[in-house]
Amino acid sequence: MSATSVIGLQWGDEAKGKIVDLLTGQHDIVVRYQGGNNAGHTVVAGGETFKLSLLPAGILHHDVVSVIAAGVVINPQALLAEMDDIAKRNGPIDHRLLISDRAHVIFPWHMLEEAVLERSRKDEAIGTTMRGIGTCYGDKAGRTHAIRVGDMFYNGSFRRRLSEIVAYKNKVLTALDPQIDPLDADTVYEEYSQYAQELRPYVIDTTSYLHRAVDEGKRILFEGAQGSLLDLDHGTFPFVTSSNSSGCGVHSGSGVSERIIDRMIGVVKAYTTRVGGGPFPTELNDETGQYIRDRGREYGTVTGRPRRCGWFDAVAARYGARLSGVNCIAIALLDVLSNFDDLKICEAYEIDGVRTTDFPSHVEMLAKVQPIYRTLSGWQADITAARVLEDLPVEARRYIDTIGELVGVSAEIISVGPDREQTIFCNS
Ligand code: IMP
To answer: Which residues line ligand 1 (CB under 6 A)?
Structure first.
């Protein structure tokens, strides 16, 4: 038995896609278990760039089965478009993809509701990806207006439930915003029945499939989306996503016990980024932040929004690491920090004059944080060709060690560029 989990420890976009892609070759199955097409994973393989949103990064490997498990919310139109793109550029998907019949489906009203809700929050908008993620998960938790992938194959009840839900949603939406055109249940039914037929060959009970895979000793890789600080229960609520995006979600989203996981890898960037609203203690609203944004190409994969950039926040990453129970970390985008005279790492917070290394549970407290920095010397060399730790300048190694010390878990993987080859495995 050998299972690995890859989890983001910050606010998402930690370059998990590359790490998952690197590890996929050592596994038989790759599982996406939470989130939806709000996630964006960029993988560079064979000189080609692939932008994945719902498909697990494992899909680029032809000898691996990719699973979209029960905890994911699926926009069928987006999924089919992504499958089509991958099939054209990377070869046929055939039986390499399995989709859970328990996964919930995103419908047009989810995007419409989200737009209304975000507008109503005004200055306190979450800054969501507008993909209907939160509203779909909301209906899932509410149970009355939710439809799962498997429900779409029972034509009679699917049509009846759609009519009821559309009638209800039209009432709510037009009351909230009279400008919204009511949805037509028949049109939605026709459209989604077509999607259901196209997806049908891939849909199974993935939970039982994974249970059997565990019994057979298959090697499973769990691919987290977003990051630990966006976790619905433990992140910077309400500026979070609507699923358990920390390690807490592996079990609930996949249906497989986390007891089978022997390697829990937490991925961090060498600095910190955040997209959307919410406090960000180490944010750099200056030319240093812009420099990092430009060098790191910090623009959202899904929405194209510029990401907010700042120094590495070890308090936040340590919290993410503990939440997710990681036993090693991968540090991505270290090359972006080359050519700084000095680099800063936030080692503690000061809140109302009190020093702490605990991550605050309330955003109003997080907004008051004064970061306490440790300053380290930078390095002036290009490190993108480094392949072993010894290739790195001593200052870069000190930076890596400091992150490990402050986060409480040492680094096993260092990424110094987007290509698969631009990776250092510390223990090999
Ligand atoms: P939602 O997931 O679209 O509801 O957005 C909620 C919050 O999570 C917003 O701040 C988004 O910017 C953020 N978010 C969602 N998905 C990602 C991601 O893949 N990377 C980084 N931030 C994300």
So the answer is: 11-13, 38-40, 126-129, 131, 133-134, 225-226, 230, 239, 241-242, 275-276
**Per annotation, catalytic residue among 41, 104, 110, 234:** 41
The ligand 1 atom nearest the CA atom of 303: 12
Q: Is 13 an annotated catalytic residue?
A: yes
Measure 298 CA to ligand 1 centroid, in angstroms. Answer: 14
Q: Compute φ and ψ for 308, nearest 5 degrees.
A: -75, 135
Q: What does the pLDDT read at residue 1?
A: 57
Mean pLDDT of each 10-residue bin along the chain, 428 residues long: 92 93 93 95 79 91 95 98 94 93 98 96 93 98 97 95 98 95 97 97 98 97 97 98 97 95 97 96 97 94 89 98 96 97 98 97 97 98 97 98 97 94 90
CA of 232 to the centre of ligand 1 (A): 11
Pocket test for ligand 1, best of 128, 135, 267, 302 (most atoms within 8 A of CB): 128
Other C-beta atoms closer than 10 Å to the C-beta of 55 total 23
Return the best residue to mutate from 226, 242, 303 for the ligand 1 pocket (most ligand atoms within 8 A of CB): 226
Tokens found for residue 368: 């008051």
The pLDDT assigned to 40 comes to 84
